[in-house]
Amino acid sequence: MNYKLICSDIDGTLLDKDRALSVATIREIKRLSHIPFILISSRMPKAMRHLQEILGNTNNPIIAYNGGLILNQQSIIHSTEINNGVLESIINKSLNTSIHLSLYHADKWFVPSLDFWANREINNTKVLPEVKSNLDVLQSWKKENKGAHKIMCMGDEQEIDFLYKTLEAEHNDEIILYRSKSTYIEISHRSISKKTAIETLINHNYPDIEMHEVIAFGDNYNDIEMLKAVGLGVAVENAIEEVLKIAKKVTDTNKNDGVAKVLAEL
Hints:
Shape: globular
Radius of gyration: 18 Å
Largest sheet: 6 strands, mixed
Strand content: 15-25%
Strand order of the largest sheet: 8-7-6-9-11-10
Structural class: alpha/beta
Number of strands: 14
Order of helices and strands: EHEHEEEHEEHEHEHEEHEHEHEH
Distance between the termini: 9 Å
Number of helices: 10
Helix content: 25-40%
């Protein structure tokens, strides 16, 4: 098969044990530089661009926030934001709990304090947030007619579990809830996914490419639709069981250059 587009999740898929791009991964992506390589992640754009710089493909589009924001360098191809009414509900439900709410819009990341959870994400993404209370961010966004591209809830597992069930019952028609870890909930707008993001990107930037000509790599729940929809959906060996079951191909783990090994076969 003559594949024309490569899309890859980042955390748990593309990055190694040090949350970095390995020498083999960089080499293989650069070797295939004639094929667009698209980073597709729940990360914010700022947490992806340094990886593009290392790969030498800063001219390629990126898909951030699980498809909530698609950028071609600084130009917005597509943007979908969470309604502020939903955000207000999430903030109110998190009051009097230990839950940390990180709020994201484009390249802005707001945290109520530089606590354990904020510092953990700083270490993971190499991005510094702006400290501002959740309610102050909400009021600013209401005035500016903005919404969140992503909301991240982090905290005690039991509190997170209760919040997840409550939000699922009350806002299931508006948002998608994704448990990347037992202590995390990542929240996106209901209408978007990595699959729809690739379709949107193809229609806008690569109209001659069809979904069966795309390779995608992933490891977690938010990758399932994408891997099922493309021509070759590849799971890394460390992926969750649900992803391993639907993948068309399983490669080595992210720690053992699984993505690079598949690219080397092309």
